[in-house]
Amino acid sequence: xxxxxxxxxxxxxxxxxxxxxxxxxxxxxxxxxxxxxxxxxxxxxxxxxxxxxxxxxxxxxxxxxxxxxxxxxxxxxxxxxxxxxxxxxxxxxxxxxxxxxxxxxxxxxxxxxxxxxxxxxxxxxxxxxxxxxxxxxxxxxxxxxxxxxxxxxxxxxxxxxxxxxxxxxxxxxxxxxxxxxxxxxxxxxxxxxxxxxxxxxxxxxxxxxxxxxxxxxxxxxxxxxxxxxxxxxxxxxxxxxxxxxxxxxxxxxxxxxxxxxxxxxxxxxxxxxxxxxxxxxxxxxxxxxxxxxxxxxxxxxxxxxxxxxxxxxxxxxxxxxxxxxxxxxxxxxxxxxxxxxxxxxxxxxxxxxxxxxxxxxxxxxxxxxxxxxxxxxxxxxxxxxxxxxxxxxxxxxxxxxxxxxxxxxxxxxxxxxxxxxxxxxxxxxxxxxxxxxxxxxxxxxxxxxxxxxxxxxxxxxxxxxxxxxxxx
Length: 472
Prior knowledge:
Blueprint: H1 9-19, H2 23-74, E1 90-95, E2 100-103, E3 115-119, E4 122-125, E5 136-145, E6 148-157, H3 159-207, H4 225-274, H5 278-311, E7 319-321, H6 322-331, E8 340-343, E9 349-351, H7 354-371, E10 376-382, E11 389-395, H8 429-439, E12 443-449, E13 452-459
Parallel strand pairs: 8-10
Antiparallel strand pairs: 1-2, 1-6, 3-4, 5-6, 7-9, 10-11, 11-13, 12-13
Helix pairs in contact: 2-3, 4-5, 5-8, 6-7, 7-8
């Protein structure tokens, strides 16, 4: 039993090797196979049309010769020997009794022809005695003569058609081979030139390490897919480089921020451990506890920043009653700090995480109360243009220099009037607040007001819960 060609182990191995080759080789192979298939189909059509046309020409010539002999027989001018016309191999005229009454010279002494079968709709005759190895087309015509009806057989050889078909087959094979080789060479060269920038990009990316993110892949000229791929790769490298710079800066800042309180804490504990005065030891231990609380707060902030960075662009979709959250957070603030005036004329629902949004507001309130002189104001409204939530937290403290209004959102940043570690916080509160706003698809900005400084948060809303709530 014969197995399918594709099931043969060697054939399957060849197919696997071809499939695992480069894009250049697969493209060239596909182009060559496509051209070869088209050439085979076109050659088959051309040969079929040529064969049909040549056979029709041969049959037409034989029919005309038979009609000419028929006119001679009808007129009673039929001679025993008939000359052969162009393209005619033999002529034989047989009467009603099977006797040969006329023939071409090459059939002298031959009995009457009799068909031996049919092929392709035509009768076949045994013509081995003529020494012809080519196919014949025999046209038979019956006509009346003065002496009775006769049957005329005129044979025409298909030698010319066979020769033309052989020449055409050889020419098409040579042309097809040349065309396949040409297409393969052009495809190989063109694909190689097209993929050269891709190889350059691959080599450059392979050479880039975590310490060489400042390198960029070569961008080819133009606006094709490869140029856009290079632009995308360079943009990704820029983001990775910026992320690496931020990470290294963050680690350095965090190390610096942790080093100082840890050193102070160790000093206090060492002195308290050796000091003989109990009152001094109590004071030192109290200071150590304060530094421990600061370290705990700093660790919590660092952990939250890491969680925000890990979350990326995954936006929380929980429905949060922002108005109730603002009221609850403000009501829970300590009363010994600057008083907070709250304005919530509308009630708003936003998609988000209630804990993170609460942390955002808490950080803004901590910053506002730290820098306020007399009062802090919280106002929750909606933007008439976009319908989004607008949360303003303002204080009547000193204004922020325009050059520092973006810098205050950087991690571990403290302005000159807030350098004290006792009053200035960890330097992460505003950075965390902006990251939370960005995670919720919003923004956090700072601007000066006639009474001081205001931080404005914009968030996308879902649907107002109730309108016209009384302001507090």
